Amino acid sequence: xxxxxxxxxxxxxxxxxxxxxxxxxxxxxxxxxxxxxxDAQGHFITQxxxxxxxxxxxxxxxxxxxxxxxxxxEIAVPPPQPDSRMDVTVWKSTVSAAVADPExxxxxxxxxxxxxxxxxxxxxxxxxxxxxxxxxxxxxxxTDGYQILxxxxxxLKGLNADLAAHGEGSVGMERFRPNIVIDTDEAWxxxxxxxxxxxxxxxxxxxxxxxxxxxxxxxQTGSRDVANPMPAMGRIRMSADRRVPGPLFGWNATxxxxxxxxxxxxxxxxxxxxxxxxxxRRAAA
Length: 285
Fold this sequence. Notes:
eight-stranded mixed β-sheet; about 35% strand; five-stranded antiparallel β-sheet; mainly beta
């Protein structure tokens, strides 16, 4: 098995960036989900509420943060001032985040048709993953909950086979917004992986990822008038474990080391979870 793709999403819920290689640190992939859109009360906003976020490209180079959307003038966001802060919520977490300058927020609010704030996870921000799954004190940024999302090509192929069997089209891996994609022959083999190693870095697969309406949206346009993977996941990937309800695709992973990984790197299974993950039985046709 080998790494086939690497992605980061500098602005949570905006377009991803494909990378040939990436550093790994305690937070996952540097630059991943270090910025976020929040409403005036500090509640995080994603494509679930604003599908148009899928139309925003981000360029983050040499300390500059630029937002681009077709038909709009580019927003060049100055580095945020550390003392300009607000508390923002991501699910059950509250984070002290740095706030972008008023002009950038004004332009972005105009783009999105509602009042929003662009916030940054800077050096003063603190957040940790759920200790029940990831262990004590594992840091995360503005991700939904964990440092890295791992998916496999074999599982995407298996999902698309079910979609095709029901005449429902097909979907690409971008629908699931992974960080590390691993090339595999077998579908759902990752359910049995407790830990993997890539160039000497251990990754614990701590929790399967339950999926939501974002998987139904085109990741370039935000349109939901496209093939929908939810019916197939409902047929073959419904969790039977109440701790993680809903349809599953991919695994949340926590890195236990640092280094650099690249496309083509070998992936080795360190520990297995022989029982896999409990799924609801598919009803007979």
